[in-house]
Design goal:
One of its GO terms (molecular function) is lyase activity. With 257 residues, this protein is an alpha+beta fold. The protein is 28% helix and 28% strand. The strands form two sheets. Strands 7, 8, 9, 10, 11, 12, 13 and 14 form an eight-stranded mixed sheet that branches. A six-stranded antiparallel sheet has the order 2-1-6-5-3-4. Helix 5 crosses helix 6. The longest helix has 16 residues. The protein is globular.
């Protein structure tokens, strides 16, 4: 699938669309965004993504025309048709509304993680911001250490999430995920997995990673992806029964929506 984009309602090939270089969305990473997965041209959980976009913009004091943005997304989706892929909607500080439809990234059947020290920026709690350089660097550092993706941990050793995914783990025979109080993103997929599986929010420390029975990442584009190793140590099961149950439950929920 070729990427197609809309900038303030003008639709064209994504690699040919432009915004002014003076836009603070580019110069300072000042803006907000959402990514939704497309199933046959329909964005899953779109109302939830729109509501989080609205909250993110309000939290960074960014005013924009939501009705115009949604109309432009509708026009873009009508142009691309019944595709499977990803829809990204960005609102920049310069006032640009940018929507992009493209293919999903390639994912291995299971992912290996490497722990990377990370301190959340608390002023951006509950904001899905364009300022993602730290997250992207964490992924690169994990790659340099031989892992597929990073697992973010605080300087005090509390396990948080992956740079663009929620982290779920099985400990003492139960499914858990780090709590929002640890300043992780309120992931929409995380919410659904919690509801579908009965998982609980529980603090996890780095020294407990050796005790994990299984783990997985969850996100809009990944759905549920098993974790096969953390810091080079293989997990006993990838996927294990909790991971398989979560993946099946989420897929059924998506298909019924």
């Amino acid at each position: 699938m070729d990427e197609l984009a809309s900038v303030d309602g003008t639709i064209g090939p994504a690699d040919e669309m432009t915004i002014p270089i003076t836009d603070d969305g580019l110069l300072r990473g000042d803006g907000v965004f959402e990514v939704a997965r497309l199933y046959a041209g329909r964005p899953f959980a779109w109302d939830e993504h729109v509501e989080r976009l609205r909250r993110s913009a309000a939290n960074v004091r960014l005013e924009f025309d939501l009705d115009a943005a949604l109309a432009e997304v509708d026009a873009l989706l009508a142009r691309v048709g019944t595709v499977d892929g990803a829809l990204r909607l960005l609102i920049t500080r310069g006032g640009r509304r940018v929507a992009v439809v493209g293919p999903l990234p390639d994912r291995p059947p299971a992912v290996t993680l490497g722990t990377i020290q990370y301190a959340p920026t608390r002023v951006l709690d509950a904001v899905k911001s364009l300022s993602y350089a730290a997250n992207m660097l964490a992924s690169r550092l994990a790659g340099e250490a031989g892992a597929d993706e990073a697992l973010l941990v605080t300087p005090h050793g509390r396990v948080l999430e992956a740079p663009t995914s929620a982290f779920f783990y099985v400990l003492d025979g139960r499914l858990h995920t780090p709590p929002l109080a640890d300043h992780i993103l309120d992931s929409i997929t995380r919410r659904h997995v919690l509801e579908l599986t009965g998982a609980t929010a529980r603090v996890l420390h780095c020294d407990q990673l050796l005790e994990l029975e299984e783990a997985f990442l969850a996100s809009t584009t990944r759905e549920v992806q098993p974790v096969s190793a953390i810091d080079g140590r293989p997990l006993p099961r990838a996927p294990g029964p909790w991971t398989t149950t979560a993946a099946d439950a989420l897929r059924r929920f998506i298909e019924a929506s």
